[in-house]
């Protein structure tokens, strides 16, 4: 099996500021296995970096490239550890893309998911100063669903600004573990008044008592877990504490892990969101193939970057149109990829 790694720098259209910190660029790693493409976006709060992803992939290079059966995806993934879930995701995606191309079918057909209703995606607004936030909100007011990053000192004022700028948009918020229990008790009723329809990750990932207290309070706004959800076991662990989970392929280790987590979430009666990290159309195309299984979708990664490195996925406002080509359906934009290559390659 032919093999190539491409460490790349993605440039964000706007400074992406959340409760964890701020960035203007992200470093991802693209993996090419024969004709199949995968992407790894480092999940920083899980200790991952682009360098660690590359090291993991190189460590397993011989194992991966010696596999001759293109349909033995689960078998091959079973030989790889979980030290880097984003790197596993790159392998998983590339293998699924390769198999779909060899069979001549798009990924959603390969997974048996064609024909399902596809939710619209939300578009993310970062933490920002009031006037800058107002301008960004006005620029995306035509989108039907906005996801607002919170976890700063002006959360309620920020949502009020966005509600005024985008009166017809549905609003979801994500605190990225930036609230205390006291802050949540003050904010959630007021956010509900502003029409917020769900809240992601209000507390730290180890504040189980806080989540239990929040669920018992019955504010009427669904609470979703994001940061701690990496596997089906995590879904089961959090099922009694939240109303839903946000699954990302970079945390589940790809499509195979995501399918197990989705089944577990449904078995526990949880609502389901499919999200992404800062990713190109490669990673998001793979997640989009699973979108028919979700209640909510937050797959706006390609909209947040100025240098998407692949074509094939298109956005008609909040409706994502997947390519009809086999596999992931993406085509690499080689000039953009070459311009984004990091010197470490």
UniProtKB/TrEMBL annotation:
One of its GO terms (biological process) is amino acid catabolic process. The active site is at 149 (proton acceptor), 248 (proton acceptor). Its cofactor is Mg(2+). It holds the Pfam family MR_MLE_C. The keyword DNA repair does not apply. Its EC number is 5.1.1.-. It is an enzyme of class 5 (isomerase). Residues 130-222 form the Mandelate racemase/muconate lactonizing enzyme C-terminal domain. Keywords: Isomerase, Magnesium, Metal-binding. Coiled coil: none annotated. InterPro entries: Dipeptide_epimerase (IPR034603), Enolase-like_C_sf (IPR036849), Enolase-like_N (IPR029017), Enolase_C-like (IPR029065), Mandel_Rmase/mucon_lact_enz_CS (IPR018110), Mandelate_racemase_C (IPR013342), Mandelate_racemase_N_dom (IPR013341). It comes from the Bacteria. This is Dipeptide epimerase. It comes from Herpetosiphon geysericola. The lineage of its organism: Bacteria, Bacillati, Chloroflexota, Chloroflexia, Herpetosiphonales.
């Amino acid at each position: 099996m032919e093999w190539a790694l491409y460490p790349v720098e993605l440039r964000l259209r706007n400074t992406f500021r959340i409760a964890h910190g701020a960035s203007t660029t992200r470093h991802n790693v693209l993996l090419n296995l024969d004709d199949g493409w995968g992407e790894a976006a480092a999940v920083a709060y899980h200790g991952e970096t682009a360098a660690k992803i590359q090291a993991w992939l190189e460590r397993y290079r011989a194992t991966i490239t010696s596999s001759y059966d293109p349909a033995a995806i689960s078998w091959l993934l079973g030989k790889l550890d979980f030290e880097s879930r984003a790197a596993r995701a790159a392998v998983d995606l590339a293998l699924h893309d390769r198999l779909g191309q060899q069979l001549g079918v798009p990924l959603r057909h390969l997974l048996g998911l064609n024909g399902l209703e596809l939710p619209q995606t939300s578009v993310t607004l970062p933490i920002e100063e009031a006037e800058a936030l107002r301008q960004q909100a006005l620029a995306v007011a035509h989108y039907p669903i906005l996801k607002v990053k919170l976890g700063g000192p002006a959360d309620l004022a920020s949502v009020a600004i966005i509600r005024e700028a985008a009166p017809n948009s549905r609003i979801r918020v994500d605190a990225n573990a930036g609230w205390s229990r006291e802050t949540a008790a003050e904010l959630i009723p007021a956010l509900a008044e502003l029409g917020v329809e769900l809240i992601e990750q209000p507390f730290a990932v180890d504040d189980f008592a806080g989540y239990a207290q929040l669920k018992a309070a019955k504010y009427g706004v669904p609470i979703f877990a994001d940061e701690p959800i990496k596997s089906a076991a995590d879904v089961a662990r959090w099922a009694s504490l939240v109303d839903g989970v946000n699954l990302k392929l970079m945390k589940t280790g790809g499509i195979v892990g995501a399918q197990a987590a989705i089944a577990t979430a449904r078995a526990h009666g949880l609502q389901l969101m499919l999200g992404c990290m800062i990713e190109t159309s490669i990673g998001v195309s793979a997640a989009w193939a699973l979108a028919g299984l979700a209640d909510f979708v937050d797959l706006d990664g390609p909209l947040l970057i100025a240098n998407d490195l692949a074509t094939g996925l298109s956005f008609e406002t909040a409706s994502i149109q997947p390519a009809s080509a086999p596999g992931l359906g993406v085509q690499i934009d080689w000039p953009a990829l070459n311009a984004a290559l990091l010197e470490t390659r």
